[in-house]
Amino acid sequence: MSLWLEPLHYDYLLRAMLAAGLVGAACGLLSCFIILKGWSLMGDALSHAVVPGVALAWILGLPFSLGAFAAAMLAALNMSWLERRSLLRRDAIIGVVFTGYFALGLLLLSKFPSPMSLRGIILGNLLTISRQDLLQVCWIAGASLSLILLRWRDLFLCAFDPIQAAACGLNTARLQWLLLALVSATTVAALQAVGACLVVAMLMTPGATARLLTDRFSLMLWLAAGSAAICGVLGTWLSHGINASTGGCIVLLQSLVFFAALMFGPRRGLLARWWTSRQHNAPAA
Length: 285
What we know:
Blueprint: H1 2-5, H2 11-37, H3 40-60, H4 64-85, H5 90-111, H6 118-123, H7 131-160, H8 162-167, H9 172-194, H10 199-202, H11 205-211, H12 217-242, H13 246-264, H14 270-284
Helix pairs in contact: 2-7, 2-9, 2-11, 2-12, 3-4, 3-5, 3-9, 4-5, 4-9, 7-9, 11-12, 11-13, 12-13
């Protein structure tokens, strides 16, 4: 037991666990809205679109987070413009845009190598997070959590029924861009934790897990944020103990929680549905 508790005395591991918990909570809250709006491909696109922003920020001498956020928002603008102007479906537009941005990022990183290696951008490296990076993650995750908790009812109504939201006097376009900005900012914060390849999992899995457990959206928010934060902390601790990928451990734990909810969920779980169908078929038999 002491072998597993001893690493908790290391500052770098405590910083990594704190960052993973904050990023997990922010991603968990946002995942509920992404599930509700069907934005799974949008989250994947934004997680890959930040790569050229990181490269350009290094070339221009700007903070990595600023470049990544600008690239994510520019990609969202490009996808919105193409969706209005072209006859292509949204999934095709998202696929074209995010692969184009990702290829541009790979090209820039190959020509102008940055201190943040390509492996770190793609796969993440949370255990090497510095105090400055931790403050940046705390600021981004804290701002995202605060905005979501303050406006979650408006964002929920806009995502669930935009027509009714407009009839209630809400500015649906502004709320949609607010949600996109929150997804972009949280993607930037999660980039160092799990990397560009696994950010989409943190933006999807907690919300999908909570959806299997409850029909109440307010409870869904708490379940998604709590499970994602716990998986972030435990995944970071586990990755240090077994000397494995931090992002892989975090996302794998989230996946295991999802499959547990799928099997044992009180209403939508496979076992509960099987038992209900058996109860209904018993009198007929």
